[in-house]
TrEMBL record:
Pathway: Nucleotide-sugar biosynthesis; UDP-alpha-D-glucuronate biosynthesis; UDP-alpha-D-glucuronate from UDP-alpha-D-glucose: step 1/1. GO terms for molecular function: NAD binding; UDP-glucose 6-dehydrogenase activity. It is an enzyme of class 1 (oxidoreductase). It catalyses: UDP-alpha-D-glucose + 2 NAD(+) + H2O = UDP-alpha-D-glucuronate + 2 NADH + 3 H(+). Belongs to the UDP-glucose/GDP-mannose dehydrogenase family. This is UDP-glucose 6-dehydrogenase. PROSITE patterns: PROKAR_LIPOPROTEIN (PS51257). The keyword Membrane does not apply. GO terms for biological process: polysaccharide biosynthetic process; UDP-glucuronate biosynthetic process. It comes from Methylobacterium oryzihabitans. Residues 317-418 form the UDP-glucose/GDP-mannose dehydrogenase C-terminal domain. The active site is at C263. Transmembrane segments: none annotated.
Length: 440
């Protein structure tokens, strides 16, 4: 099949490369000429494990192309995917659909024959209706179906998630679009991924409901973690104890500094707005949003407390800046609020992240950056693990103890065991587990 992907961000680029790998002929379009030039030269605009190799193979084998020429790419496609950004709109938090509608207008003008236009971007309920209206307005002669096909991939595991999804959701308003979409995903039949065919509005809402549910699950265990700290219980054992119940499930029960990233914060907010507009507020999700926002700031207070109540004039080393490991994405990363909170309290912050420092620089003032974890910890009064990169899972604690000015470790991802850290003479604070004092 001939597939065109409009937008080469996370979702567009990964989906385009994976569709090509399925055997389809894919053209990825972006109006950012610099991005397309870089992709043509084999440079990826994002850090995602395995993506460069997947792109290179499919380009070499002639199934994947990159261009800024939307009209040409759309004219010859059987399916055109819209995978442009839908950021939160400043002011009201509703999803900003201007990129989606602009893409729809451009696509409409370029359509020449029967085509299915598919929104893959996460879009509020009813966006497909509007896209359809725009296309019919601009180009009434062509026969077009508009489908919704939300993407559930996680950053850092994007290729694996795309190729082995738990399910594929397709929202259509007719059998022609359904048949075409089944054809697009036919290579996944081998993996027996269930395909759920629904109405377009149902598909759009399914994506928001999934993300809101997962955000709720994380926020729930985070609040239980706070309670654990107060009553002397261990949140990891509680999570295991509840997670083994099949009705609950063990995933997304890892307590931490609050969720971040390009999806959960924006999508929960957009769902809240949609529901308010519809006159049926989702109060549970409203609370999740508020609790998670407060949590990120509260993490700075947790660090301050572990430092004996003040960080003024102290040097605080931060390990991990990105919102999670294996990405260079800094969007809504908890590290941003935590570092700002520490600086506001008078600390000097030095940070290290394996991939995220370049993205972090424009977002943070006054932070110095180290070349590795030990350079970061050198002379520090406390070390804070904010993101659980593998490189931070087996730090040489004896060495850290020697090079730091004080042995204080705040582990916001529960990477270490309290007894283990205490053996090296560290005061240790983590999330939802009993605090440990240095052995001795
Ligand atoms: C998420 C969804 O998983 C994906 O299905 C959707 O399509 C897009 O949003 P992503 O943002 O890439 O994917 O990251 P994810 O791995 O889900 O993590 C989101 C945030 O939640 C991170 O900040 C992570 O650290 C946090 N998290 C996740 C926890 O704090 N605890 C957990 O148990 C799981």
């Amino acid at each position: 099949m001939r597939v065109t992907m409009v937008g080469t961000g996370y979702v567009g680029l990964v989906s385009g490369a994976c569709f090509a790998d399925f055997g389809h002929t894919v053209t990825c379009v972006d109006r950012d000429a610099g991005k397309i030039a870089a992709l043509l030269a084999g440079r990826m605009p994002i850090y995602e494990p395995g993506l460069d190799a997947l792109v290179a193979t499919n380009v070499t084998q002639g199934r994947l192309a990159f261009t800024t020429d939307l009209a040409a790419a759309v004219a010859e496609a059987e399916a055109v995917f819209i995978a442009v950004g839908t950021p939160s709109r400043r002011g009201d938090g509703f999803a900003d659909l201007s990129f989606v509608f602009a893409a729809a207008r451009e696509i409409a003008a370029a359509l020449t024959g029967d085509t299915v236009v598919v929104t893959k971007s996460t879009v509020p309920v009813g966006t497909g209706d509007e896209v359809e209206r725009i296309i019919r307005d601009v180009n009434p002669r062509v026969r077009v179906d508009v489908a919704s096909n939300p993407e559930f991939l996680r950053e850092g595991a994007a290729i694996e998630d795309f190729k082995r999804p738990d399910r594929i959701v397709i929202g259509v308003e007719g059998t022609r679009a359904e048949a075409l979409m089944r054809e697009v995903y036919r290579p996944l039949y081998l993996n027996q991924a269930p395909i759920l065919v629904t109405s377009r509005r149902t598909a759009e809402l399914t994506k928001y409901a999934a993300n809101a549910f997962l955000a709720t699950k994380i926020t729930f265990i985070n609040e239980i973690a706070d309670l654990c700290e107060q009553v002397g219980a261990d949140v990891q054992q509680v999570a295991r104890g509840i997670g083994l119940d099949n009705r609950i499930g063990s995933k997304f029960l890892h307590a931490g500094p609050g969720y971040g990233g390009s999806c959960f914060p924006k999508d929960t907010l957009a769902l809240v707005k949609t529901a308010q507009d519809a006159g049926t507020p989702v109060r549970l999700v409203e609370t999740v949003v508020a609790v998670n926002d407060q949590r990120k700031r509260a993490m700075a207070r947790k660090v301050i407390q572990a430092c004996g109540g003040t960080v003024r004039g102290k040097r605080i080393a931060v390990l991990g800046l990105t919102f999670k490991p294996n990405t260079d994405d800094m969007r809504d990363a908890p590290a941003l609020s935590i570092i700002t909170g520490l600086q506001d309290a008078g600390a000097a912050v030095v940070a290290y992240d394996p991939e995220g420092m370049e993205q972090a620089r424009p977002l943070l003032d006054g932070v110095s950056y180290a070349s590795d974890a030990y350079a970061c910890a050198e002379g520090a009064d406390a070390l804070v693990i904010v993101t659980e990169w593998n490189a931070f899972r087996a730090l040489d604690l004896a060495r850290l103890g020697r090079i730091m000015a004080a042995r204080v470790l705040i582990d916001l991802r529960n990477v270490y065991r309290p007894e283990e850290v205490a053996r090296y003479g560290f005061a240790y604070a983590s999330v939802g587990r009993p605090a440990a004092s240095p052995a001795g």
